[in-house]
Amino acid sequence: MGRVLGRLKTAAAGISSRSTIVEHHFKYFNHPNALPARIEGNPFREEIDRAGEIVSGHVELYAVNVVSIRGDQIPGFAGPLETSYSSALKASRKAHVRKVGKRFDTIILDARPLTILISMYQATKAFENNLRVLNNGGLAILLAECREGIGPAGFIKALRSGISGMDKQGNIVPYLLADHLQRKLEERDAKLLVVTSNVEEEVWGRIEATRNLEKTAREVADRAKRGLSTLIVQYASRVVLVV
After folding, report:
1. Whole-angstrom distance, CA of residue 216 vs CA of residue 230
2. What is the pLDDT of residues 60-86, one digit of tens each?
3. Angle at which helices 173-187 and 120-130 pack, to 10 degrees?
């Protein structure tokens, strides 16, 4: 897994062409079961399992899986591939996945304590993790430092022009992520408001960057007065909330 996000990583030795990358990322972004912390029915998990089955018929596989929980707590699980993975998965789910029982009209995702989220591009992981608990027509507010601004040039261009402006020779992943975020927001008729002092205020479709924390607080208070439910999530990129 990629950190605690439930993102699976594959190595396509000898066939790592641009078309392979495009296919794999579109599969991740578009498949309904390709979700953070989702294993069952996840096409990437099934792909890796199949590769493991093929290889295990020829060689004995031994693995060490580690799970970052908090601070200096990094337990390791060693043994046969499936045993090691299953133990690590159980520990990861216990540490990071939480059921909240319902969806909310407003979710406030505080990703500021995590210094690894150096840009808005990285910080959107906190939104991806917790999108499942946002009501249709809802508002997601992401609090992030974003000390390196929006992120890769491709991500900035993609936010402004959409996937149609993708550079055919450059890195395609920022374009796919920007398109994915807009699609997910459109599906829920929702909006993502990123509150940070290190990004110029701008609106890209359903995504908006603002520096005005006071105005944002007033909007949250007004939504609460109208009876709209609110959920505050700390360390939002380290937790995956499900209904």
Report:
1. 13
2. 878 888 887 766 667 788 888 778 888
3. 40
Neighbouring C-beta atoms of residue 64, cutoff 10 Å? 10
186 touches 206 (CB < 8 A): yes
Q: For the segment 169-198, what is each residue's pLDDT rounded down to a tens digit?
A: 677 788 888 888 998 999 999 999 999 999
1-4 long-range Cβ contacts below 8 angstroms, 24+ apart: 1/92, 3/68, 4/68, 4/92, 4/95, 4/96, 4/237, 4/238, 4/239, 4/240
CA atoms lying within 13 Å on the CB side of residue 52: 15
Instruction: Give yes or no: residues 122 and 202 share one domain.
Output: yes
pTM: predicted TM-score of the whole model, two decimal places: 0.82
For residue 171, what are the domain limits? Answer: 100-242
Domain finish residue from 96, 120, 150: 96
